[in-house]
Specification:
221 residues, mainly alpha
């Protein structure tokens, strides 16, 4: 989610005449902070600031020796904490306080399960496949834990980082495009025609033009 929030923020300020108030480091920490709350795994600000400070300041610029770690309490920590709190408020305003933004990751499993039923020589009944059959198609340990599922998940994370895919296309279209490209890359042949496949697997909720543009971008990345 943090990547999606970052791209939404960047899109807002690209179209805004006002100066961007957040530097890249502060924006990154803020997106992590907000994403942790949105995914119901909130983190204390100290658990974000302490490791971030250590990564950004591994050594002292003047002496070259290891830098002193950020400590609590300290004036520096209080300043950084106040900055991050303010950054969170700015980001929330840009997002319109809408923390749940659909992500391609939400749709991957259902699309992949439907898609595997349309693969030539596979057919329906994925749950009834034996171990040998699942191994052949790289879906051992559950459909998202095999090679195909992991490939889809990795592409979905990359898609969230991509400015165009995160901002210009519905998450459903991105997820369906990811499944199609991963199956294509692994040489798994789809029985249906592309348009029919998009309608069938996407349950007629994915625009075919969006799908075409998404796979074009995915193939270039």
């Amino acid at each position: 989610m943090s990547y999606i929030y970052m791209n939404k923020y960047l899109r807002f300020h690209r179209s805004s005449a006002t100066p961007d108030p957040l530097d890249p480091y502060t924006l990154s920490l803020s997106t992590i902070s907000i994403a942790s709350k949105a995914t119901e795994s909130p983190r204390r600000l100290s658990s974000i600031l302490l490791p971030a400070h250590a990564l950004l300041h591994p050594s002292s610029p003047s002496t070259g020796k290891p830098a002193k770690p950020l400590t609590i309490p300290s004036p520096l920590y209080d300043t950084l904490r106040a900055t991050l709190v303010q950054a969170d408020l700015i980001l929330l305003r840009v997002l319109g306080f809408q923390l749940h933004i659909p992500s391609p990751l939400e749709y991957l499993q259902r699309y992949l399960e439907r898609a595997m039923e349309d693969i030539e020589n596979v057919g329906e009944g994925f749950d009834e496949w034996d171990r040998e059959a699942k191994g052949e198609y790289g879906v051992l340990g559950g459909i998202m834990e095999g090679r195909v599922g992991r490939g889809c998940r990795a592409k979905a994370v990359d898609a969230c980082k991509n400015y165009e895919l995160a901002n210009l296309f519905p998450a459903r279209a991105v997820a369906l495009g990811i499944v199609y490209v991963v199956l294509e890359e692994r040489g798994l042949k789809i029985e249906l025609g592309v348009r029919e496949w998009v309608k069938d697997v996407g349950r007629a909720k994915v625009d075919s033009e969006d799908f075409d543009e998404v796979i074009e971008i995915l193939r270039k990345t």
